[in-house]
């Protein structure tokens, strides 16, 4: 592409245009920053589904601002003819594609993830073996806060090859499980009833979802899984702690023995 | 529960017992609903909502709270014998099996049932001790008389605890009731306890009764029936802020002022909380009270004015509550009051945390201690219920 052709692609940029472009870019940056701060702050005043819906809109609004900025800026720099747009964008795209293919892959995966709503702000997900709450869906990564309060950034490109496990999928509640491993010699019906009562008497329990006790017999004994839903997903760990603590107390009263043989967790 | 939409017929039966499915939650007038929404937004900005720009007719600071004697004259305690008589009509002469009387908090269920039991020489079944509930001690069931003899169990909510060991006794009791082994009787149960017990045992609803909601018209009739002005005199209840008449006694017609309709709507038909709010809002002018105190020989005015302030509870925001406070409030409502030492067994939070929550709620006037038990106060009940419902806690069906 010779110099004459290149000069035909671009408009003449004077001081006024530069100021205009800078204003647009700064405004867009500030707007994105404000949206990423204000909406989660407002979400702090809400509860349950309303909060999750509000904070889930942040990446969509950010994407809309970026696309709008691009649409506003480009005609101010480039002579908006089809030939020019194709020539310039094709060249730039080719160069960037090779240099930043992984970055581009994550960007595109991020857009796909938004469209498919694989995860959203407030979801509890497991990606690449890491479980945590989605705090921020960025253009290239998602930010998870793990139960150990670690901040983990996971590229969207993992989506192409890794399964994504979403525990609540935009809902304010998720299922929690408390496990109990018992010696085989006991009354299953009594234990099952006790564990159900443990869940039904929990202060955290959400009564709109079912309480289930599943039982699996293992070579070393009996594995009980008490499954129930807390009122809010943020309570999941306290809920499981409560179920486990009171479950153990209830089973002690019945004289049930816990399995002690070493075994692999399943 | 369906909503009521029109005034009652002219002959108003104050105390009416109906099936729970026939309970009519009074409508909140649109004006009141919008005002509540605006008040809520204002409370986010300022610490106190519901302030208006216009100067009030009477400054609340200039009005005197009524003394207990005057209050007892204007809003005396409910005559439970009247309520028991209405219950008697609803139960009918030939009681077969067991009937459940479901009551919202502050509606005097225990008093009504005990009065009814006295009227019918029925055996009153007292609640077991906490230790008996937790141990499932069935010796308390020996209180029940021989089959064929009438009994009344006024407080089923005292027969269970939200604890793994606190469910066995109430299950046994309800099983005996369902299988007809306990003969004929009445069981009184708080509406929140019904919701809670129904999660661990199918609560029978087909043989249930509850006090019908008090809408504006019925509230007016109740307040009017409580007062007996001297012959030739009338009482005029006026709004202190705007001066308009709310109610005149004797009541001239069936028209009811929107303020009473709003009160009934805010309380969702709960007569106990409505009476509490009404008592709290009554004021008199210092001159009127002084004149009476200084010279009883002065001829009585033909019309006495009683000033009614705005319903503060509807305008005041709830204090900021955290998760621990919500747990405390929920436990208190599910059990219709609890002694403090039981909270250790029923809550998943340590002693020092729920103790702080108790004290903060007490200082805010949301709960109070009475006879060794903590209760949600009547003036806070509706706000607490609304808060728990919004946070998806289990609530009653009223």
Largest interface: A-B, 26 and 21 residues
Low-confidence stretches of chain B: 1-10, 44-54
- Estimate the helix proportion of chain B, in percent: 25-40%
Query: In angstroms, what separates the terminal alpha carbons of chain B?
Result: 7 Å
User: What is the radius of gyration of chain A?
Assistant: 27 Å
The assigned structural class of chain A equals alpha+beta
Tell me what the structure shows:
The complex is a heterodimer of chains A (about 270) and B (about 400). Chain A is α+β, with helices and mostly antiparallel strands and about 270 residues long. Chain A has helices spanning about 5-10, 15-45, 50-55, 60-75, 80-100, 100-115, 190-200, 235-255, and strands at about 125, 130-135, 140-145, 150-155, 165, 175-180, 210-220, 220-230. Chain A contains 8 helices and 8 strands. The model of chain A has no long low-confidence stretch (mean pLDDT about 90). The interface of A and B includes residues 201, 204, 232, 241 and 250 of A.
List strands and helices in order, with pairings.
The complex is a heterodimer of chains A (266) and B (398).
Chain A: H1 3-9, H2 15-43, H3 48-56, H4 58-77, H5 82-99, H6 101-116, E1 124-127, E2 130-137, E3 141-145, E4 151-155, E5 164-166, E6 176-182, H7 188-200, E7 212-218, E8 221-228, H8 236-253
Helix pairs in contact in A: 2-3, 2-4, 7-8
Chain B: E1 3-4, E2 17-18, E3 25-26, H1 30-45, E4 64-65, H2 68-74, H3 80-91, E5 98-103, H4 109-119, E6 123-124, H5 130-135, E7 151-153, H6 168-178, E8 185-190, H7 191-197, E9 208-211, H8 216-226, E10 234-239, E11 245-249, H9 258-266, H10 271-281, E12 282-284, H11 286-294, E13 303-308, H12 312-315, H13 323-334, H14 343-346, H15 351-363, E14 367-370, E15 373-376, H16 378-390
Parallel strand pairs in B: 1-3, 5-8, 5-9, 6-7, 7-8, 10-13
Antiparallel strand pairs in B: 2-9, 4-12, 10-11, 12-13, 14-15
């Amino acid at each position: 592409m010779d110099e004459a052709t290149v000069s035909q692609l671009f408009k003449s940029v004077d001081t006024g245009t530069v100021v205009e472009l800078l204003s647009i870019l700064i405004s867009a940056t500030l707007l994105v920053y404000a949206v990423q701060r204000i909406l989660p702050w407002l979400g702090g005043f809400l509860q349950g589904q309303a909060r999750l819906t509000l904070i889930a809109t942040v990446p969509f609004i950010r994407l809309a601002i970026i696309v709008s900025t691009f649409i506003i800026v480009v005609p101010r720099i480039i002579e908006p003819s089809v030939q020019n747009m194709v020539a310039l964008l094709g060249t730039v795209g080719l160069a960037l594609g090779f240099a930043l293919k992984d970055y581009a892959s994550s960007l595109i995966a991020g857009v796909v993830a938004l469209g498919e709503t694989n995860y959203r702000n407030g979801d509890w997900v497991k990606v690449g073996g890491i479980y945590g709450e989605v705090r921020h869906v960025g253009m290239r990564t998602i930010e998870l806060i793990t139960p150990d309060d670690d901040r983990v950034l996971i590229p969207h490109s993992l989506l192409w090859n890794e399964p994504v496990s979403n525990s609540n999928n935009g809902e304010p509640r998720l299922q929690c499980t408390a496990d109990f491993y018992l010696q085989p010699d006991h009354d299953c019906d009594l234990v099952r009833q006790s564990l159900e009562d443990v869940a039904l008497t929990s202060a955290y329990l959400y009564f709109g979802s079912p309480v289930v006790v599943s039982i699996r017999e293992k070579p070393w004994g009996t594995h009980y899984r008490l499954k129930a839903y807390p009122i809010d997903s943020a309570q999941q760990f306290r809920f499981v702690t409560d179920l486990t603590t009171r479950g153990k107390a209830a089973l002690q009263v019945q004289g049930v023995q816990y399995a002690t043989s070493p075994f692999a967790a399943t | 529960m369906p909503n009521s939409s029109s005034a009652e017929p002219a002959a108003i039966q104050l105390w009416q017992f109906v099936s729970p499915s026939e309970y009519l939650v009074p409508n909140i007038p649109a004006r009141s609903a919008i005002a509540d929404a605006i008040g809520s937004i204002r409370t986010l900005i300022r610490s106190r909502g519901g302030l208006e720009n216009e100067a009030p007719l009477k400054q609340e600071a200039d009005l005197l709270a009524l003394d207990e004697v005057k209050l007892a004259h204007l809003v005396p305690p409910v005559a439970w014998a009247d309520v028991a008589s209405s219950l008697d009509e609803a139960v009918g002469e030939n009681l077969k099996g067991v009937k459940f009387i479901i009551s919202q908090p502050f509606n005097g269920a225990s008093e009504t049932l005990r009065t009814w039991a006295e009227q019918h020489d029925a055996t009153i079944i007292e609640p077991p001790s906490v230790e008996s509930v937790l141990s499932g001690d069935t010796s308390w069931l020996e209180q029940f008389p021989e089959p064929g003899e009438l009994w009344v169990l006024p407080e089923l909510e005292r027969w269970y605890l939200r604890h793994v060991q606190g469910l066995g006794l109430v299950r046994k009791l309800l099983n005996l009731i369902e299988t007809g082994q306990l003969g004929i009787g009445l069981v009184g149960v708080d509406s929140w306890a019904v919701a809670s017990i129904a999660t661990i045992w199918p609560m029978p609803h087909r043989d249930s009764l509850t006090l019908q909601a008090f809408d504006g018209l019925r509230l007016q009739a109740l307040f009017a029936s409580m007062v007996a002005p001297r012959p030739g005199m009338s009482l005029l209840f006026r709004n202190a802020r705007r001066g308009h008449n709310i109610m005149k006694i004797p009541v001239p017609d069936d028209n009811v002022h929107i303020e009473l309709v709003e009160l009934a709507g805010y309380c969702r038909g709960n007569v106990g909380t409505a009476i509490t709010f009404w008592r709290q809002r009554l004021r008199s002018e210092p001159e009127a009270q002084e004149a009476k105190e200084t010279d009883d020989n002065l001829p009585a005015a033909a019309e006495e004015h009683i000033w009614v302030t705005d319903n503060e509870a509807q305008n005041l925001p709830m204090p900021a509550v955290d998760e621990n406070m919500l747990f405390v409030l929920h436990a208190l409502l599910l059990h219709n009051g609890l002694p403090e030492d039981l909270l250790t067994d029923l809550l998943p939070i340590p002693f020092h945390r729920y103790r702080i929550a108790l004290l903060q709620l007490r200082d805010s006037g949301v709960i109070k201690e009475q006879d060794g038990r903590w209760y949600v106060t009547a003036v806070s009940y509706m706000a607490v219920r609304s808060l728990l419902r919004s946070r998806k806690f289990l609530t009653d069906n009223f």
